[in-house]
Structures are given as structure tokens and as C-alpha cells.
Design brief:
560 residues; Cholesterol Oxidase, domain 2; 25 strands; seven-stranded mixed sheet; FAD/NAD(P)-binding domain; globular
């Protein structure tokens, strides 16, 4: 069995950060186990490649959630990254931190270590802001943050329309005020995706004290009593194991971190008992508190043929775009699927936005898998609930590690979520009716002009509403009955085991989750190194004390 100081399970956003920071000083050996591939692919690198990434299992776990009892018993497609970089290898690359107030209720009472002000230095340390350094932005970090290299004319129309109906223009959603509409900043560099792996891992993968094993499917965490001592994994058809001398760091994400804890015997005893799994430690909160940004998509046809389309004739005429991108990483293929949008309040009296919108200059349905619809011309807007009240659960389907877990989102189970989504749809209809869109406006595809009453819009939400791929909170931080980790991300009741990923959120942040996941990794790396140093110093002190006692015994100054 190979032995390392730290074993990291999962090469997603936080896992890549830990692998970099924990191996940086050369003092500790680190092993990173990733179930997916290395992610070094033109499909991953190309911003517009997300259309392919949604439809391939090569880099996408393609989980399914549901059936959802509050949405006509439909299932929900749940893509998650299956490569080094995790979901940062397949996401829309939006760099969003959420609202400052989101972080105020994250931590147990009396603990100030996870406020926004505590995390801001880590947001800044992680990034290289191409606009330059400021109070909220850093330069020189691994993660490149930039403005879109290409702005689609239809997206420009959307931003114009939002201003025409009274929304404020916001040049920086990560600045002092989140509210308003404008252009998203992106995790891209030189026209290519800048995933967490590309930022943190690939530049340092040659370090002597860092071992990266991709296509290593972890089947369980190994324990001696309550102490995590390593991990068992399948690689190249063989079951292997690796020892962790100091800590096992679980970074498999909001879906697979709780799944792996349960498979390893840490979780709700009732749930484990259903599948014949022996209980190592009872922890009822594992897999509970599942939260997700619920979503509905307003889709409008456009009479002018200037949007993104899969129409064969347009694809033939845009052959030059492939050449343009291949030569200098410019043009349409360098465009992310979402570049315009923003944050809005359903009620002006609110202290922060409760809705996020994302414009796509194409007809969009079924997670981009409705190719027939996309052969037409038009535009769409995602409407997301930033702080949904509905809660779900994640449980096991079986004790087989290869069996995907059961995701029960329970989206729209709370009536306030339905009411807020209806408000969001009406607000976006006002934007689509603005003068900027009027000249070439076609029919409304979804929900359709026939859906006008609240009940008709509610039925549309039940029938076609979805989510925007931000599952979180399934291993929440805190001290209550549902808490899984403490404020230093140590699993309650266990030794040498931490969870470091977006699953530790007590509540969802108001926006995309990749930037917070990276900041969590940055902060956790400092915590782990600090705790390790304190442990070493305490051990050295104990050794010195024993040596002093032994010397006194030898000299007859002390009797045992």
C-alpha cells in the first residue's frame, strides 16, 4: 500500500486547490484520486464545447434526480464534472461569489471564521483579475478571470432591453452591489476555459511530492475505529488502497461526498441499514439539507437569423469560425453559452436580489439537448431562485459504489418558491417586450402566450421547470443535528477526516457555486496546514518532555 501524508478524494474545484497548496512547500506528500479522466481535451478547453459536454458521459456523470413529486413526477437531469477540475471542466464558466450577506449565517454561533470578510482574502488570492487589482479583486492568482472575448449581438440586445425596462446596469456583480444587469465575468484565459485543474493542477503536476491518479474510482474510506487511515479505489480493473498518514480529505462534491461517507459507514444508521452497510459512526445529517437553484426558462423566437442556431445552413456558412478559433482562439467558439444576465429583486423593498437571470442567444430547452428546437432562431433566459426554501435529500440506491445515488430535490415543494418563480417569469416577459427586441420579435415558445394566469404559469413550472446545476449543502457545516462537519471542516465524531467542497455550505449562496468552492479550498488548505503544524509542535513537545523525564530518571533525580 502506497503511503502519503494527505490523500485527497476528488479532483474537483476544491480538490485541485488542496493538491496545489498542500504540496507547495515540499514538506508533505500528497495523493490526489480522481474517478474521471484528466480533462485535457479540446472539447473541455473550448468555451462553446459545453454543448457537447452536456451530452457525453466521457466527462459528465449525468446523474438523474427524482421523480419529483411537486413537478409532475418528472426526473431531473443533473450533470456533474467527471474529470480533473470537476464541474469547473464542464460549467458555463461564470465567476460569481454570491451576496456578502449570504455568508453571515454560515457558521456556528460565536464563530467568525466564515464571514464574507474572512473569505475575501481567499477569493482574491485565488484569482488573476484581468481588469486589475482592487478592493474586491486580486491579481497574480492561479484562476484567470476575464471579460468575454466575444459579445453576441443578441446578448447585447438583452442588456439594452433590461435597462429600457428600468433595471440598473451593473459592471461588476462581485463588487459592492450585486443588484443589476450586465455582463458576466468568466473563468477563461486566452479564449479557453480556465478550469480549476488548468489553474491549480496542470502547472504543478510534476512536483515530486504530488501524485495524481485519474480514473481512480474510490469505493470506500478506510478506518481504524473512528480514525480515517486511507482509501480503497478501483484503477485499471484492480482494487487498490492508499494510506493517509495524516488526513483523508473528501472533495467529491455535493453528490458524491455524502455518497462515499455513507458507503464507508458514516451516516444515518437507518439509511445504512437499508443497504446492509455496517455503521462506523452514526451521523444523521449526511445527505440531508440538499439545496439547489431552481430554474425556469423563458424561450422566444426571433425573426432575424442572427442568433446561435444548429440550422444546417447556418453551420455551413460558419465554417470559418472553426478556422478563426483554431488560429487565434477568437470568434463564436470562444463565446461562453452565457455572457449576459444579472441579479434582480422581486420586490424593491428587499435588501438583496432573490433572482438571477442568464441570457442565452439561442433557443434552449432540455439542458441544450433539444436539437430540433435549436435549429431555429431565437433567445432564451434562465430565471433562477437564489435562496429557495425547498429542501431535498441524497440517499443510496444500493451498497454498490458504482450505483449512482438517489437525488430527491423536492424543488417547488415550498409554495413561496412557486410564487417567486412566477414573478420572475413576468419580469422577464417585460424585458422581452422592450423596444430593443420589438423589431424582430417572434412567438413565445415557452411558456407560450396562452399561459397568462398564475395557475397556468405554475403548471408550466411544474411541467418544464428545472435547475442550474448547483447542488450543495449535503454535508453542512455547523453544530446542529443535521451538521456533518465543524467550522474547520472536520467530520463530527471522526479523526483525520475532513470534507472540503461545496457540500459543506449550510445554505446556498446567491449565485454560481464554483468561485466559492475554490475559496473554500483555499481557506481549508490554510486550516489544514495550521492544524498539522500545531500537531507536530505538540508532538515534539511531548517527545522533549519524555526525554527530560528519562534523563532525570537516569541521573537519579526522579523515581518512576
Amino acid at each position: 500500500m502506497s503511503s502519503y501524508d494527505f490523500v485527497i478524494i476528488g479532483g474537483g474545484s476544491a480538490g485541485c486547490v488542496l493538491a496545489n497548496r498542500l504540496s507547495a512547500n515540499g514538506q508533505y506528500s500528497v495523493c490526489l484520486l480522481e474517478a474521471g479522466r484528466d480533462g485535457k481535451s479540446a472539447l473541455v478547453d473550448t468555451p462553446m464545447g459545453i454543448l457537447g459536454l452536456m451530452n457525453t458521459s466521457r466527462y459528465n456523470w449525468q446523474f438523474q434526480g427524482g421523480p419529483e413529486p411537486f413537478q409532475n413526477n418528472r426526473t431531473h437531469y443533473c450533470p456533474r464534472g467527471k474529470a480533473l477540475g470537476g464541474s469547473s471542466a464542464i460549467n458555463a464558466m461564470l465567476y460569481i461569489r454570491g451576496h456578502k450577506d449570504d455568508y453571515e449565517n454560515w457558521t456556528p454561533s460565536g464563530n467568525p471564521e466564515w464571514t464574507f470578510d474572512d473569505l475575501l482574502p481567499y477569493f482574491k488570492r485565488s484569482m488573476h483579475q484581468e481588469r486589475g487589482e482592487s478592493e474586491r479583486h486580486g491579481v497574480g492568482g492561479p484562476l484567470n478571470v476575464c471579460d468575454a472575448p466575444y459579445r453576441h449581438p443578441v446578448a447585447e440586445r438583452f442588456v439594452m432591453a433590461t435597462v429600457e425596462v428600468g433595471h440598473t446596469y451593473n459592471p461588476d456583480f462581485n463588487g459592492s452591489d450585486q443588484n443589476g444587469m450586465g455582463w458576466y465575468q468568466l473563468t477563461m484565459k486566452n479564449g479557453e476555459r480556465c478550469s480549476a485543474a488548468k489553474a491549480y493542477l496542470f502547472p504543478i503536476e510534476g512536483r515530486d511530492n504530488l501524485t495524481i491518479i485519474s480514473q481512480a474510482y474510490v469505493t470506500r474510506i478506510l478506518f481504524e475505529g473512528k480514525r480515517a487511515v486511507g482509501a480503497e479505489y478501483e484503477h485499471q480493473g484492480k482494487i487498490q488502497a492508499v494510506e493517509a498518514r495524516r488526513e483523508v480529505l473528501l472533495c467529491a462534491g455535493a453528490v458524491q461526498s455524502p455518497q462515499l461517507l455513507m458507503l464507508s459507514g458514516v451516516g444515518d444508521p437507518d439509511e445504512l441499514g437499508k443497504h446492509g452497510i455496517s455503521v462506523v459512526h452514526p451521523l444523521t445529517g449526511v445527505g440531508k439539507n440538499l439545496q439547489e437553484h431552481a430554474d425556469a426558462v423563458l424561450v422566444q423566437r426571433r425573426k432575424k437569423h442572427d442568433s446561435v442556431s444548429l440550422n444546417p445552413l447556418q453551420l455551413m456558412t460558419q465554417g470559418g469560425e472553426f478556422w478563426k478559433y483554431w488560429r487565434n482562439r477568437k470568434g463564436l467558439l470562444s463565446m461562453p453559452p452565457v455572457e449576459a444576465g444579472g441579479f434582480m429583486k422581486s420586490d424593491p423593498s428587499l435588501d438583496r436580489p432573490d433572482l438571477q437571470v442568464q441570457c442565452i442567444p439561442a433557443l434552449f430547452d432540455d439542458h441544450g439537448r433539444n436539437f430540433r428546437l435549436m435549429m431555429g432562431w431565437g433567445y432564451s433566459v434562465h430565471i433562477n431562485l437564489l435562496r429557495p426554501k425547498s429542501r431535498g435529500t441524497l440517499t443510496l440506491n444500493s451498497s454498490d459504489p458504482k450505483d449512482k445515488p438517489k437525488l430527491q430535490f423536492n424543488m417547488m415543494s415550498h409554495p413561496d418558491d412557486v410564487a417567486l418563480m412566477i414573478k420572475g417569469l413576468r419580469m422577464m416577459r417585460e424585458v422581452f417586450a422592450a423596444p430593443a427586441f420589438e423589431e424582430f420579435k417572434g412567438e413565445e415558445v415557452f411558456p407560450g402566450s396562452q399561459a397568462q394566469s398564475d395557475e397556468e404559469l405554475a403548471e408550466f413550472i411544474r411541467e418544464r421547470g428545472g435547475h442550474v446545476y448547483h447542488p450543495a449543502c449535503t454535508c453542512k457545516m455547523g453544530e446542529d443535528e443535521e451538521a456533518v462537519v465543524d467550522y474547520r471542516l472536520r467530520v463530527h465524531g471522526m479523526e483525520n477526516l475532513r470534507v472540503v467542497d461545496i457540500s459543506i455550505l449550510p445554505d446556498l449562496i446567491s449565485g454560481n457555486t464554483n468561485a466559492p468552492a475554490i475559496a473554500i479550498g483555499e481557506k481549508a488548505s490554510d486550516m489544514i496546514l495550521s492544524d498539522t503544524q500545531e500537531s507536530e509542535e505538540a508532538q515534539e513537545e511531548r517527545v522533549e518532555q519524555k526525554q527530560v523525564v528519562a534523563k532525570k530518571v537516569r541521573q537519579g533525580e526522579l523515581e518512576l
